[in-house]
User: Fold this.
Amino acid sequence: MVMPKYCYRCDNCNSQYYVWHSVSVLLQACADCKSLKVVRVPSLIGEVRTIRADEVGTVVKRHIEETREEIERQKKEMSKELDK
Assistant:
């Protein structure tokens, strides 16, 4: 049986760690400080990242530019191969 990996954060000591266990199990105490103030981090990949709205546009624009540059490089390479 494959066990999913969950991310937990302790509200007492702010440590964050990953635990493999069954879906029906809830962690009761922090692995570091043994506090009972442990919460499962709600994330599909186990990490939470906050992105500002203005960052999203910048990331998308950068990705589009990088993709255009890559397409141009590939076009040049293909053109060279056809000229042979």
Summary: The radius of gyration is 23 Å. The chain has two domains: 1-48, 50-84.
